Each structure stands twice: as structure tokens, then as C-alpha cells.
């Protein structure tokens, strides 16, 4: 049988030691089993765990070896409670989640504690922490590819969604009773753009979700997240036909060209339609004429005749300053993305023309949870919530808590 030892003390044997590692050494003494033991709160209720405790007389630190084996946390609330609380908090407001958690489990957890447990679970999560493994993605690709004569289409959608935010200056306690703390906030709210991307497979008239990542961050940070996904090799580019779809935002396409230069690039057809409708509204006073022009122009665009559309815009005689501006904006937009508008060829290849898959990701990951009545989020809290919701829809929510357990065990 091995004897307990303190690794750092074994190296130096100082009378005062600041070591954080406790392993096995004769320098440690065993405390009798009738000592004080904390109660551990799990989903089955409060349990009292009796286990040996080792204490180092040199560095004056204690250690429960059995805790590492059982995966127990050094706090009262255990990991299963935290996981259940985070699962509810990612779907519901904290107050509602705390109430529902009490009804379902019989355990009383305040909304503040729900908030703390959720943020602890999401601390320092990265895109690779919430991404499925390569094997899991390969299985989804193989399922979609079964019975098909050509490789399935894997779509990468990139877009941004505005979420309600509050400045960091709003932090801090306000003195007084509850009625005073509930007064109107002295800070101004703002809307921040949560930039994100989504990989999904096309399976007939349905889509198969693969990976999503949304954060309130800069375009450079978004590009770094995409680069990490590519370098990790979780996307099977050799077994799919990669297609990138987005609108005309300037920050999207440089990252696509740098990371996926051979991917098929598609400009969202319905964003083009918005520009054409603006031209028709400004140019024609008669609604019938405007609708007739829009339908004819969209048909040409749908058939891949973008050159005809650009020529028609150049030949138009503006009827007002507003019409002139709308025509110029539309012409510049289509010219800049002309190589991404071959819609007839794209339809033959089975590629999508619209970014509805990405828009739905914005809705069920960002909007559903963050856009609540009266909710204004600090950037850090919103990013943690978005990371957990991405993990939920990526199918990797349980592995977050396994990761936390491994990290703490390593420390």
C-alpha cells in the first residue's frame, strides 16, 4: 500500500511550504474518520460523505483523495446540481429557472445562485470546447451522404445579430432598500452585435445542424474562432462540398477568402431583393409599375443574368435624388459581389440561395434567450450565455462539465 506524500514538500522539506499539489508521501498524516465532514448537496439531496483526510504538517494543507475519484467538488453544491441549473438558466430567465428548479428537484436555489452556477460553468469556454468531435461530425455527414451520388453540401453561414447590452460602468451595488434599488437605471443601454457562424448540412428540404458559435466580439475575434475550427480539423472538407453564404457585410468575406479559398461563395439572394425593392420604391410612383420592374429584375437575377441587371440599372433615368442614391447603392452592391450571384449554376449544384439557416441560428441561440423584456446584459455575461446555448444546440452541453472536472483535477 502506498503512503501519502506532498510533492512540493518532498522536494524541499521546508518548515513553511506554499505548495498547491498534494499527492502521496510519508510527510502526510491521516486524520481519523470521525472528524468533521461537510454535507454535499446533489440532486438526490444532502449526503454526508465519510472519507479519509490527509494533512501535510509542512505546508499545512489538506486533501481528500476520494473526492477526485468520485468527482466531488470542494463546495456544497455538486456538479449534477450545477449542470441541471445551467440547463434551465440557458432556456429561461434566472428567476423563472430558480422557481422551476425548486419545483422539479425539491432543492431551494436562489436566482443569484443560478446566475453564479451558470457563469462558473461557462467560464473561459472557447469554440473548440463547445464543438462536436470530428467523429461525431463525420457520422452526421455519412448519414446525409447515404444513397447520394455526390458529396453533400456543408453550408457555412456568417452573420451578426444585435443583442441588448449594458455598459460595464453600470456594475456595482446601489445603496438602500429594494424599492430604491429598483429605480430607473442611471446608465444608457446599447445594442451590440453578436457576430457568429453556423455550419449545417443540407438534407433535402431539411438541414442538419453541425456547429454554431456566437459571441459579442470583433470581426478579428470571429476570424480567429473560424481559424481555430479549421486548424483543429473538425470540419471534413474532403468529404463535403463547402459553401459559404452571407450578405454584403464587408467584414465577412475577407475571412472566408483567407480560410476557405476553394469554398463556393454565395451572396444571399433575398438581400439582393431588398436592394431592388428600395430602387423600385424610390424610382416609381405607381405601385404597379414598381412591382412589375422588381419581378422582372429578380427573374433575371434568379436566372444568373446579373450582367443584364447591372446594365438595366445603368440605363435607368432617376426621377429624384432618392432614386439616384438607391440606384447607385444597388449597382455598387451587385458589382462588388458579382462573382457570388451565379444563382442558376448554384441551384443546379444543390447550393442554397438564402441564409435562412443562419438567420434561424441567430434567433434560437441569440434572440430567444437574450432579447427578454427588461434584460440588458453585460458583455461577459452575454458571451457566457451564448457559449452555453451554442453547446446546447451543438449537442456538447454535458461535455462542458466533464471538461471542468478534468481541468480541476489537473490543477
Here the CATH topology of the largest domain equals Nucleotidyltransferase, domain 5
Q: What kind of sheet is the major sheet?
A: 5 strands, mixed
> How does CATH name the architecture of the largest domain?
2-Layer Sandwich
The Rg value, from CA coordinates, equals 28 Å
Count of β-strands: 10
The tally of structural domains comes to 4
CATH class of the largest domain: Alpha Beta
Helix content: 40-55%
Spans of at least 5 consecutive residues with low confidence: 1-5, 10-37, 177-183
Widest beta sheet: strand line-up: 8-7-6-9-10
The tally of helices reads 18
Q: How confident is the prediction overall: mean pLDDT?
A: 83
Notes on the structure:
The protein has 411 residues and is an alpha+beta fold. The chain folds into 4 domains: 7-76, no CATH class; 79-121; 132-169 and 188-267 and 365-391, ATPase, nucleotide binding domain (Nucleotidyltransferase, domain 5); 270-340, no CATH class. Helices cover 47% and strands 16% of the residues. The chain contains 18 helices and 10 strands. It has helices spanning 7-12, 65-70, 79-89, 94-105, 111-121, 127-130, 134-145, 178-181, 219-232, 253-259, 269-283, 287-302, 306-315, 321-336, 343-348, 356-370, 379-394, 397-410; strands at residues 28-31, 39-42, 45-48, 53-56, 62-63, 153-165, 190-203, 206-215, 241-246, 264-267. Strands 8-7-6-9-10 form a 5-stranded mixed β-sheet. Helix 11 (269-283) packs antiparallel against helix 12 (287-302) and helix 16 packs across helix 17. The longest helix has 16 residues, at 287-302. The radius of gyration is 28 Å and the shape is elongated. The two termini are 25 Å apart. Mean pLDDT is 83; it is low at 1-5, 10-37 and 177-183.
